[in-house]
Design a protein that fits this description.
Elements lengths: L1 H19 L2 H5 L2 E3 L8 E2 L3 E4 L1 E3 L5 E8 L2 E7 L4 E4 L6 E11 L2 E12 L5 E2 L1 E9 L6 E7 L2 E6 L8 E6 L4 E7 L6 E7 L2 E6 L4 E6 L5 E6 L9 E3 L4 E4 L4 E6 L4 E7 L10 E7 L2 E6 L2 E7 L6 E6 L1 H4 L10 E7 L4 E6 L4 E8 L1
Parallel strand pairs: 2-9, 10-27
Antiparallel strand pairs: 1-4, 3-7, 5-6, 5-8, 8-9, 11-30, 12-13, 13-14, 14-15, 16-17, 17-18, 18-19, 20-21, 21-22, 22-23, 24-25, 25-26, 26-27, 28-29, 29-30
């Protein structure tokens, strides 16, 4: 009888332990001490990370990883210092894999990293003012040699196209109309080929830059929208309406990487039409009559160009936001316009 009672006691004890140590409870033993974390860090800072140990368990070691890459291993509940230098701007997903008392659990947190650069405010002077097609819902704007190329969207009541434009008159002299199902977006020219995005169709087109003959239709390899487009001669950069700018291989149309666009204290959402100018990306910001000058390696906004005064010179009452940047290399000037603007402005930018 004594042995029987002893067996019952052992079984009950095992059951109590099992019920008290469910997997979900075990996984809650450890968590990052987020009370000591800031809402946002700058890229030149270091972050001290510690784990809370709610049950005072004996920790053998902790393996830390950032964005699924192992960074460090510490003994016991040792502190981990995350150096944000050279980290991609945006969210860093941090995971701690905790080894303790014969078991292993993981816990996660994330840290938002902004640029460490305070953007400069640029100046400009107006060199010339030209007419612009008041019915052009401008989405792409780029010079090919000395010819201005323009791509337009198709809001209700407007027809989408892309064309070669006489920038002095605003008239199209060679035009390709888009099928009604497509909302035209950014364009760029690489190796004598025009690449064009569409907004929500996840579809792009490639044309011969001289004849405008369509060469290929391609599908985005990421589930993103198509917004702005530019290139550095080898890589295409495209925006998707968020803070991201993607890099695309023009030969394969595959995405190879991305950057997140940040100032020193905030992310810049809705990056729109893009232009590559002297090693930097100039990007319109949707709903803002301003251009951000972006480092293409890091995503840091290094300067801002406020063009709200130009918007005041546009007389079309239906005019929408600034959206169109075309750099003329021979004159070192920018041609800027907007959706349904009746004017294109040639400006000279300085510090």
């Amino acid at each position: 009888m004594k042995n029987y009672n002893l067996l019952i006691t052992i079984l009950l004890a095992m059951n109590l332990v099992s019920c008290g140590d469910s997997r979900s409870e075990i996984e809650s033993y450890f968590s990052f001490d987020e009370g000591n974390l800031k809402a946002m860090y700058q890229a030149n800072e270091k972050v001290e990370l510690t784990l809370l140990n709610s049950k005072n368990k004996t920790i053998d070691s902790i393996v830390y990883s950032v964005n699924d890459t192992k960074i460090s291993s510490v003994k016991g509940n040792g502190k981990f210092t995350l150096d944000l230098k050279d980290k991609k701007l945006g969210y860093q997903n941090v995971k701690a894999l905790v080894y303790f008392e014969g078991d292993t659990v993981s816990t996660k947190t994330r840290i938002e990293v902004a640029s460490s650069i305070t953007p400069k405010l640029l100046k400009y002077t107006i060199v010339n003012t030209y007419d612009h097609d008041v019915k052009a819902f401008t989405e792409g704007f780029e010079f090919f040699r000395d010819t201005l190329m323009e791509s337009t969207g198709t809001p209700e009541g407007y027809k989408g196209y892309f064309a070669k434009i006489d920038y002095k008159t605003g008239k199209a002299y060679k035009k390709v109309d888009l099928d009604a199902q497509y909302f035209g977006e950014g364009i760029t020219v690489v190796n004598n080929k025009i690449y064009q995005l569409t907004w929500q169709n996840k579809t792009g087109f490639i044309y011969d830059a001289n004849s405008l003959k369509k060469l290929k239709t391609f599908t985005f390899d990421k589930n993103i929208e198509g917004w702005g487009m530019t290139n550095d001669g080898k890589t295409i950069y495209q925006s998707d309406g968020t803070e991201k700018i993607w890099m695309m291989n023009p030969e394969t149309q595959k995405m190879t990487d991305f950057i997140n666009v940040y100032t020193n204290d905030s992310k810049i959402k809705s990056i729109n039409e893009l232009e590559w100018i002297n090693g930097k990306i100039f990007g319109n910001i949707w709903q803002k009559d301003a251009i951000a000058v972006i480092n293409p390696q890091t995503g840091a906004v290094e300067a801002v160009l406020d063009l709200s005064a130009l918007r005041a010179k546009v007389t079309n009452k239906e005019a929408e936001v600034l959206n169109g940047i075309a750099y003329h290399r021979k004159t070192n000037t920018l041609f800027v316009t907007g959706k349904l603007w009746n004017k294109t402005f040639e400006i000279k930018v300085s510090e």
